[in-house]
UniProtKB/TrEMBL annotation, chains A, B:
Listed Gene3D superfamilies: Acyl-CoA dehydrogenase/oxidase, N-terminal domain (1.10.540.10), Butyryl-CoA Dehydrogenase, subunit A, domain 2 (2.40.110.10), Butyryl-CoA Dehydrogenase, subunit A, domain 3 (1.20.140.10)
Organism: Flavobacterium macacae
Family (UniProt): Belongs to the acyl-CoA oxidase family.
Name this protein carries in UniProt: acyl-CoA oxidase
Compartment(s) of residence: Peroxisome
Length: 761, 761
């Protein structure tokens, strides 16, 4: 510039043109402002105007010259410098004697100008800086606990079994199958199962006298650990040793154990669990396949009465199964004795399909294509009497039906109850998959850099608050569910007859809760890995598609949640007698009393940090919700029934409400078990980080249910807002430990496999 | 019974044993109650006790005998009959003269007994009935509008183009590819593209003088309609004719059009759009590939400086592409002139990869395996000067850089702006997929029956309230998004320079909104179809996996939502000058004034049906949220900046809030456009059902945001609860029209394909 003082305008002009942040109107504003300054001469003004003439923009090389001039005034090491500070230095460089008054005017004018143009001075300065650090840029992974100690807590007494399985994964045979050919994949999965059987893992749950270890707990741990590897393997393994083998063990008697269990455990006798029919998947009480008894020949004739009564989706059926546990209505002398279970051979040992059996392949599926699901039709297939699995019902020597349980319904549900183990294996397998997805996405988020402060280097995407918000709550939830599933497993292992209904509901509910969580976690993790997440090599395709059916099989989740809700309603009835107006009223009054301290203005508006972090507050909020929702559902159904509605209609109208009954119950159980775990954790480092995860699980669940708490007046807006902020803050704090937390899952790198995190670049 | 009067107890005993609804304690209760009745003799009591002795349960044949006796008292045609009515009839059958007093006692005793045992008399009766109808059972599909008329409204002016594409689908060549072999699939997709090109569809958007139709609107309709068929086809088609062709048309000049467009449109010249690099996917401004100009030879040398700067995920690259539009930093005399676009040959016409080019296959992906995505490395590849796409920047005859846009940033974003069409094609393609998923799931839900009232036949699962809740809001949302995308398309087609930033933000936002909606819709629809939904033949696998990357490509959704939010903030600034305390305060006061009528107790508690159904209420609620969230985000960021935080940190802290700014803006736009559509719909039947869908979209969106409205005091709990009920009711009402509503999408059956709905059983 002719007048060197005017160089102080260059930073402003530079960013105006270079980044085009200003509109034409704003350029005009700038011009008018300059025009109004009487301490500038006409020549000064004209020179300045020439630089901001939208009709005559500066050339590129001119802009670059400006930058070189400006750079002289910038201090790379001073992060607090403003654009106006630089401007002032520029004015001084070639003009050390300018009197102070003029400089002051200049300084204030420039400041005003920037403000009125909406330029953020502290941000704009970075256009001229070589480097730029921010809080966001500097944040890095730093473990505050010992990873191995947390792994010990997670694995608990099952460490040995878990490590045994992991060691098997190191065998070269366990390399992932990459072929998209279904036949190749099925062959590989069968081979894997054979290796596991050979290692004795298949028979783990069976009695010692039949080749097993009598260790159901270990069986679940095996299922879970296998889920770090291939899900088709898990399901094939589960069908053979769980569904097929355990149906014999749970529904049969000694003669069946002797005859079959050893061969099942060694995989010499591959078999199926043939319950589901095309027309009856959820409503299995209404299965239509028949097994008709003939006392003369002492045989049952198994038959598929029509096409839609065929057995469908049966694992092990399309390719390998030689026998099947078939669920069919038992008919004696024309009378229907409800659904019972029978062992029916379907292939001979050379794998030839037997007479009367028709098998179709279910064909390609979204996932689990290493499992040979099939369709089975029976055309008057005759089996000997001893093939009836007769623990709960039998045909006596006179050809009469006999059962210690007189009700067909009750007997059938008792039979199903013995099979509840499947509803523990599946959510545990699902959780392992959620952990794998988190391990990949969180480690990738820690490495992957994209965008950054102006003039600064790019930032790990896990430092972005939204990225944390997307992943940290799922990380917390996966820890929460881990301990809850340990609890369900223990309840199942030490079950007593009287607790069975409760345990069944608990397992059904946790199956839904965990598999839905996996669905959501894997989805979010895939998206968090962008295009890399879409490549099959990074495993989200398999994790997502293989577990997609987890929300459907072993009981459709929505149907299960209805079941849980109905169980809660009957618990309610047990506790308060019949569901009449008086007892409901008493219950509600009782509820109100216990929560009175929480419904005063101080509590509903309490946003104190310590209060929000207090596990007692969390537990009370969860319990309050659980009880209140249950009571209101009961009231509502009663009201609908009283109005003369059919109970089927009444329950249908309240269905959405009932799902929430189940949800609130499960959330309370999960919270409670997580808290118990923390209380009994000795290692301080682990305890502290588990405590943070607990808080995040608790508060993000409350946040999800915020509208309900607000409706109830249990919290006011200030509190739910404070909780939202607390969730953000917890996500930020946990991010520091996020990578160590997924390392604590201790998933073998060969299983994780995803090159985005396991390969050196 | 010895005393025939006692037969009246049989119904109660029967259901106690048959369904095992009573616990042992309750059996004891029953025994005690009987014991306390002085009008029963000792012999009577003993006989009754013998029937409810838990130590000696009745035999099965005995229970069946009871049922036969009971059936005589049941009137199959009287739905109002209670268990006690039947009991009384049984007492009378063999005992017509029993004196009234005794009968009365008996009647009241049985009533009391049932109540104290928690038996719902009107439900239990159905154990003895042959048939049983309920409201839930009777509800069926019944169209209240003409399907063809609604289709006309949806297709609008594009009906001809849409029908032309649908006709092509009927060619035998368009049968779906079932092979899991990637090579076979890619070959098929290329063949399909060639057929479409031959039919003239590829060049639709290009100028007439270069073989096209100059019809961009038709191009979008083609993309959308193709999405009913195969998604790999859509993307391959989009890469070739959209990304590759349109990059030439948008970034090049006449000489390029002449040289390339005809061959691109006929697919003689397959090409790629090579922007994304491994290290830069979202932050494309920082791409690292270089194009260095040499004035002596008048050439550019294109180079990949290091491995992670390779071009990745490039469609058409792995197999078919012969040229690519490559985005690279232009370097002249050592100076960086920002990212520009260049045409670089990568294969010759015989498909041999050229010198200096290395291509790798991206390998198997979650979906879209019919598209040959590849990785490209350039090793000093020399191209002639005319290969620079020089609409926005060029090298002049002196070898100097020239551009009408002086800022590198601005120029790059102007270039990207011309490519915004991709962000319209993708959400429209996504919506077509959501429609397909809904068509399958809703038609299946209408046919599939499972469970039912006791003694009644099974019920279509779409009659279950929860099933409606899962699907109806997505049906409403797909209609809402349809009209919003029509609006975005029109805005784009008639764009003016000054609106470009707004249109870009709108397109970016709707891309995110629509693709996330498709992700969720397809997921819910898959689950709603249970095991059948998991079979590939029913297409959810393809619909889900092919669109999985839609939330990532053409801009990661989360990044796009940030962009939308920043655009909204700058609109805010434009409207109110700088973001200072005074203008913010004024804005908020202004807001408060306009909403004063809505924040009085009457309005916040108004649960009147007409009010909840009023589009004015909906629009105000959406607008209030949009403005309030924007203002609070602006205030928050200002506060953070004022506290001395770096703007990068400040925006990071508010990131979660900013996503909501974008969300609220999009929801308002969608609502507004839906409402405009309804106002201009002449056909009364269509208008009425669209009105219902509009209400459901409006109220279910408010329900989703309920906690926010409650926090703001804009609504009270009574109102949000009433809205929840209104949503349930709307789901129930719309279910009747649900099947006709998906028929109105008019998706060809051959495309829908799913045997669960298209095949006769």
């Amino acid at each position: 510039m002719a007048n060197p003082l005017l160089n102080s305008f260059l930073p402003l002009f530079y960013i105006s043109w270079f980044d085009d942040v200003l509109t034409e109107t704003e350029m005009k504003t700038m011009k008018d402002a300059i025009d109004s300054q009487d301490w500038l001469t006409k020549t000064d003004k004209d020179e300045l105007f020439s630089k901001i003439d939208v009709e005559n923009p500066p050339s590129r090389s001119q802009i670059n010259e400006w930058k070189e001039i400006i750079s002289k005034g910038v201090d790379d090491n001073n992060d607090d410098e403003l654009l106006t500070d630089v401007a002032l230095k520029l004015a001084l460089v070639e003009n050390p004697e300018t009197d102070n008054e003029e400089l002051k005017k200049l300084y204030f004018f420039l400041q005003e100008l920037e403000k009125s143009l909406g330029i953020i001075s502290s941000e704009a300065i970075f256009a001229f800086k070589e480097k730029h650090d921010t809080i966001t840029s500097k944040y890095v992974t730093e473990a505050t606990f010992e990873v191995e100690k947390l792994t010990e807590i997670l694995d608990g007494s099952q460490a040995e079994t878990i490590n045994k399985v992991k060691k098997i994964f190191t065998l070269p045979a366990f390399k992932y199958e990459e072929s998209t050919d279904t036949e190749v994949y099925r062959e590989k999965v069968l081979k894997w199962c054979k290796i596991l059987a050979k290692e004795g893992l298949g028979a783990t749950a069976y009695p010692k006298e039949h080749g097993g270890e009598d260790d159901v707990e270990a069986y679940f741990s095996i299922m879970e650990t296998l889920s770090y590897h291939d899900l088709s393997l898990v399901i094939k393994f589960g069908v053979q040793f769980g569904l097929w083998g355990m149906s014999i063990q749970s529904l049969g008697t000694e003669k069946h154990y002797k005859k079959y269990l050893k061969d099942v455990g060694s995989l010499k006798l591959p078999g199926c669990f043939a319950m589901t029919e095309t027309n009856h998947g959820s409503n299995v009480k209404s299965l239509e396949t028949t097994a008709t008894y003939d006392h003369k020949t002492k045989t049952f004739t198994v038959n598929t009465p029509h096409k839609l009564a065929r057995k469908e989706y049966i694992g092990n059926a399309a390719r390998d199964g030689q026998m099947a546990t078939v669920f069919a209505k038992l008919i004696i002398d024309g009378k229907d004795h409800g659904v019972n279970a029978f062992i029916v051979p379907i292939r001979d040992s050379k794998n030839t399909i037997l007479d009367g059996i028709t098998i179709e392949d279910c064909g390609h599926k979204m996932g689990l294509n290493g499992v040979d699901n099939g369709i089975i039709y029976f055309k008057n297939v005759v089996i000997p009497k001893e093939n009836m699995l007769d623990r709960f019902a039998s045909v006596n020597s006179k050809g009469e039906f006999e059962s210690p349980i007189s009700s067909d319904n009750r007997r059938f549900f008792t039979m199903l109850g013995t099979l509840v183990g499947g509803r523990i294996g599946i959510p545990r397998s699902a959780l392992a998959v959620a952990k794998s997805a988190l391990a990949i996405a969180i480690r990738y988020g820690d490495q992957r850099r994209q965008f950054g402060p102006q003039g600064g280097s790019e930032v790990p995407i896990l430092n972005y608050r939204m990225h944390q918000r997307r992943l940290m709550p799922y990380l917390a939830k996966s820890y929460a569910i881990h301990f809850a599933l340990q609890y369900v497993t223990k309840r199942f292992l030490h079950r007593k007859e009287a607790e069975m209904q409760e345990i069944e509901a608990l397992a059904a509910g946790m199956k839904a809760y965990s598999t839905w969580n996996t669905r959501d976690t894997v989805q979010e993790c895939r998206e968090a890995c962008g295009g890399k997440g879409y490549l099959s090599e990074n495993r989200f395709g398999a994790l997502k598609n293989d577990t997609e059916v987890y929300t459907t099989f072993e009981g459709d989740n929505t149907v299960l949640m209805n079941l849980v809700a109905k169980n809660r309603l009957s618990e309610f009835r047990n506790q308060f007698g019949e569901m009449n107006a008086v007892s409901l009223f008493n219950y509600v009054v009782d509820q109100a009393k216990t929560s009175i301290t929480y419904k005063n203005p101080f509590a509903t508006r309490n946003t104190d940090e310590n209060h929000l972090a207090d596990p007692e507050f969390h537990l009370h909020a969860f319990q309050f919700r659980e009880k209140e929702i249950l009571a209101s559902a009961a009231k509502r159904i009663k009201k609908l029934l009283d109005s003369g509605l059919d109970s089927f209609d009444a329950f249908n109208i309240a269905q959405h409400h009932l799902i929430n009954v189940g949800q609130a119950y499960l959330e309370r159980v999960v919270l409670e078990q997580f808290q118990l775990q923390i209380e009994t954790t000795n290692d301080k480092g682990s305890q502290a980080i588990l405590g943070k995860l607990f808080q995040l699980y608790a508060l993000s669940t409350i946040e999800k249910n915020a509208s309900w708490y607000l409706e109830q007046g249990y919290m006011e807006g200030v509190k739910t807002k404070a909780i939202r902020k607390a969730v953000n803050q917890l996500c930020w704090e946990i991010r520091q430990n996020a990578v160590p937390l997924v390392h604590a899952f201790n998933i073998p790198e060969s299983c994780l496999s995803a090159p985005i995190v396991t390969k050196k670049k």
